[in-house]
Design goal:
This protein has one domain. The chain is mainly alpha-helical and about 270 residues long.
Length: about 270
């Protein structure tokens, strides 16, 4: 899937608030299920991240980047019990409160569809409920998700602050050109080295990874990458393919585990 800034507006703004109020696309039970599927992809690092290395072409400057600022919002930790290792699927619970308010989910919706718009191979990020999954992710009471919670909430606030400083408007109400002007300053890894953009660039890199993780854990995203899943095999099990074994070795190496020994056809 090729992901780029959309060529036309895909949002409808209300006249009084200039905000697209994102409507939840799934139940808490479904978003928690997607959270579980997303965890392995995001934590192991198997999500393709567009624009991490390529540099933007020179473009006409829009707005003047202000001096560096970062909100530094301190959030109270979420102390919910977690989902547990053996949940009762027939009687699902709501294990923790959600973090993002309506305005923040609007921001995540706008950003998600900029990062992963609809194309000929699949729907947009919002169409498959990516903002709901990200809200679930940053609300979970686990250490990794709690770090993401602080980074995402502060990053969303930074975008609003930056939009106000440059254009005197909230981020979601900006034109596409104005949004792109801000995002071009934080969309590349080289901007980690620019003091005023280091933390915002790290935020955007993480958000992008979460968006793709949430998208490719959806049924539509799974179809997009051609994942087949479990299928019946007639006769003896032939063992994993060389490609699958190489992937397992790479994952084990990324996790710092000992090398995977060959076991195919060995009993």
């Amino acid at each position: 899937m090729q992901h780029a800034w959309p060529s036309k507006s895909i949002y409808q703004w209300s006249a009084d608030t200039m905000s697209k109020f994102y409507q939840a696309r799934m139940s808490r039970r479904e978003s928690i299920k997607r959270l579980s599927a997303m965890t392995a992809v995001v934590m192991v690092g198997g999500v393709p991240v567009a624009c991490d290395t390529a540099e933007p072409e020179a473009s006409k400057a829009i707005g003047t980047p202000p001096a560096g600022h970062w909100p530094g919002i301190e959030l109270k930790p979420i102390t919910g019990p977690g989902y547990g290792t053996d949940p009762i699927v027939s009687a699902p619970t709501i294990p923790w409160p959600l973090t993002l308010n309506e305005a923040q989910k609007d921001q995540v919706a706008v950003l998600s569809d900029l990062i992963c718009p609809a194309d000929e191979r699949g729907p947009s990020a919002t169409a498959v409920g990516v903002p709901d999954v990200i809200d679930e992710w940053v609300s979970a009471p686990y250490s990794g998700q709690q770090r993401d919670r602080e980074q995402i909430v502060n990053g969303l606030q930074w975008l609003n602050d930056e939009a106000q400083l440059r254009f005197e408007s909230d981020f979601v109400a900006l034109t596409e050109e104005q949004r792109t002007a801000i995002l071009d300053d934080i969309a590349y890894r080289s901007q980690y080295e620019i003091g005023q953009f280091e933390l915002p660039a790290r935020f955007f890199s993480r958000l992008r990874r979460l968006v793709f993780g949430a998208y490719f854990s959806s049924p539509e995203g799974i179809r997009d990458i051609g994942y087949i899943g479990n299928v019946p095999i007639a006769g003896d099990y032939p063992g994993p393919t060389d490609e699958a074994m190489e992937h397992i070795r790479q994952v084990a190496s990324n996790l710092g585990l000992p090398p995977i020994t060959e076991y195919v056809n060995q009993q």
